[in-house]
Amino acid sequence: MFYRPEDGHGLPHNPFNAIVSPRPIGWISTRGAKGDNLAPYSFFNAVAYVPPQVMFASTSAKEDREGTKDSVAQARESGVFCVNIVEYAARDTMNASSGAHPAGTDEFLLSGAAKAECDTIDCPRVADAPASLECRVTQIVALAGEANFAVFGEVTGVHMRDDCLRDGRFDVMTFGPMARLGYRDYSRVESLFSLSRPGE
For the Flavin reductase like domain, which residue ranges apply (predicted)? Predict the structure, then answer.
């Protein structure tokens, strides 16, 4: 099968998200004039090592946020955000925070996610996440299409849960990271293997 996105795929559901998978989930926390916010984004990844940088993208809008969502609006307002890593045990809590709630809704309270303060920025974080990345916004890029924005940030602080450190390494097998697939599907990391690059 071949299709041009501009012509449509002709399938019952859009296959694009299933093709580009698995995708890590950035559970983004922000703080703004309307309060604290927490929401998951699967258009998320690390983009540079030195200095460490990450990005997340938002692809729809709410009527009360002038063409975007709460996370982008509050990152733009405050200049900071925090990325919280989602473990399998938090899947229901993460999902409960994913609704399109009115601006000013605190999804920490709504979902039951434990809240703590960041150290290098004025922002909340998920207290018991396996890891959290405190970030200062470096740029917000308007992408082609309606309400598509990519938010880039430099990591200024890193939290790692003590039980996730094994032999000096951050061990993802201790918590089973969640990954987003297509449609309503998710996965978790349950096995791993190592490869050496040529010449190593």
Answer: 20-172
